[in-house]
Specification:
The protein has 412 residues and is α+β, with helices and mostly antiparallel strands. It folds into 3 domains: 12-171, Nuclear Transport Factor 2, Chain: A; 180-313, Heat Shock Protein 90 (2-Layer Sandwich), CATH 3.30.565; 316-411, Heat-shock cognate protein, ATPase (Actin, Chain A, domain 4, Alpha-Beta Complex), CATH 3.90.640. It is built from 8 helices and 15 strands. Strands 1, 2, 3, 4, 5, 6 and 7 form a 7-stranded mixed sheet that branches. Strands 8-9-10-11-12 form a 5-stranded mixed sheet. The longest helix is centred in the middle third of the chain and has 21 residues, at 239-259. The protein starts with 28 loop residues before the first helix and ends in a 19-residue tail after the last strand.
Length: 412
């Protein structure tokens, strides 16, 4: 295997407290009633604003609320937990399951929970934002590797547009229905050990992923599913092939154990997800674990597929000049990875370099407002250096985006 694994820690104990941050848990009937009555308790002027925003499908009454909600989601997507706390009032009445708390406390909990996840993404559907006085209700799409949900979220603001309450009302169906997916889970363990018990070792193989069941065409379905199974190292695109691979993984451990060459448990954890964005879908598969050697292994595979044709999108399908994009990316890369002005990217320790020698990661995701590149181990530097970060906002490359591409609406 060419991958390196570190065990994904699933902090389920925080799921309820952070459901709007990814718990996806339905509010109970009592909370639903409280939320509803709170949202409709405004004065007549507020009610008029609410009717206006609901009929239009978005909040035209108070764009500042939309700005705060977008920032909240952007900060979580970018792991900016310290920045998140500044969006909240000094005293927060409720944050999902946490009551009478502070912005700092909830930001710390969110950071502790989400820092173990890969491909974290929060995206509000602001075109469905509804406002009633100082209370906003908006669907928020939340995902990380192996998990997705869409939650109706009620957010109450004070006069300074600081969040004083954030409640999860209910889970919602996906926004787009042109792609139907199902979840798969393959688990193999050595001698029936409990792989969920993190206190005791357990050699295991785990793959939790999604596949496409129905799509606009068979070409779309096959392109996405083939990519997922290939990322899982399955010899053919089927669940049976993944199970066979899992059994071989355990068998390999057992053979090495019998030879006396195994010093610790073998672990392989893979998580895959499909994000339907309407015109395209972003597919991600992340694997981590340990299978002998001096360190673990990890791999990351992210691709974007045109839902009309099934084509896997390349950068050249999206921008007019990859060379021009490299120059912009160099500046952003240097800033994000804190490279001093007196050193080139290569001199700082990476195997890539500035401008024309810049190399983009093989994996990238088309998010709502930006492109995120995911560098794997060894792709941009030695193992001792953590994979670098690179996020490019569409607003920073609007002159390069092809108007007839999937991203054409970003430049209108």
């Amino acid at each position: 295997m060419k991958k390196t694994y570190s065990i994904f820690v699933l902090a389920f104990v925080l799921m309820a407290a952070l459901a709007s941050c990814g718990g996806g848990k339905k509010a109970n009937s009592g909370e639903g009633k409280d939320s509803s009555s709170s949202a409709s308790s405004g004065n007549s002027e507020s009610e008029g604003s609410s009717e206006s925003s609901q009929s239009g499908g978005s909040s035209v009454a108070d764009p500042k609320m939309a700005e705060v909600i977008q920032t909240y989601c952007d900060d979580f997507s970018s792991f900016k937990y310290k920045e998140v706390k500044s969006l909240f009032a000094p005293n927060v009445k409720q944050y999902i399951g946490m009551k009478n708390t502070t912005g700092e406390a909830l930001a710390n909990e969110a950071g502790r929970f989400l820092s173990t996840k890969r491909f974290v993404a929060y995206s509000p559907d602001l075109d469905e934002l509804k406002v009633n006085g100082k209370t906003a209700t908006v669907p928020i799409n939340i995902e990380w590797a192996g998990y997705q949900t869409r939650v109706s979220t009620e957010i109450e603001f004070n006069d300074d547009y600081k969040i004083v309450s954030l409640k999860e009302l209910k889970t919602l169906p996906p926004k787009y229905d042109n792609l139907k997916t199902s979840s798969k889970k393959v688990v193999e363990t050595y001698q029936g050990c409990d792989h969920t018990n993190k206190k005791e070792g357990c050699t295991h193989y785990l793959a939790a992923y999604q596949v496409v069941e129905t799509a606009p065409s068979n070409a779309v379905k096959d392109s996405i599913n083939n990519y997922i199974y290939k990322a899982l190292d399955a010899p053919e695109p089927s669940e049976a092939a993944v199970r066979k691979f899992a059994k071989n993984f355990i068998k390999g451990f057992d053979e090495m154990r019998k030879s006396g060459s195994v010093m610790s448990d073998f672990v392989s954890d893979s998580y895959g997800s499909i994000r339907n964005m309407g015109k395209y879908a972003t597919v991600s598969v992340s694997t981590s674990g340990y299978a002998g050697g001096s360190h673990g292994f990890e791999s990351i595979a992210v691709a974007n597929f045109d839902l009309n044709t099934g084509k896997k999108l390349a950068l050249i399908d999206l921008v007019t000049s990859e060379e021009a994009l490299k120059k912009i990316a160099t500046k952003i890369f240097r800033k994000l990875n804190q490279i001093p002005d007196d050193k080139t990217i290569n001199q700082f320790g990476y195997t890539i370099d500035d401008n024309e020698k810049f190399v983009f990661a093989n994996s990238f995701a088309l998010k709502k407002n930006q492109i995120e590149f995911y560098y794997g181990r060894y792709e941009a530097g030695p193992y001792v250096m953590p994979p670098p970060m690179l996020t490019i906002k569409y607003s920073e490359i609007k002159d390069l985006i092809k108007k007839d591409s999937i991203l054409g609406d970003k430049v209108k």
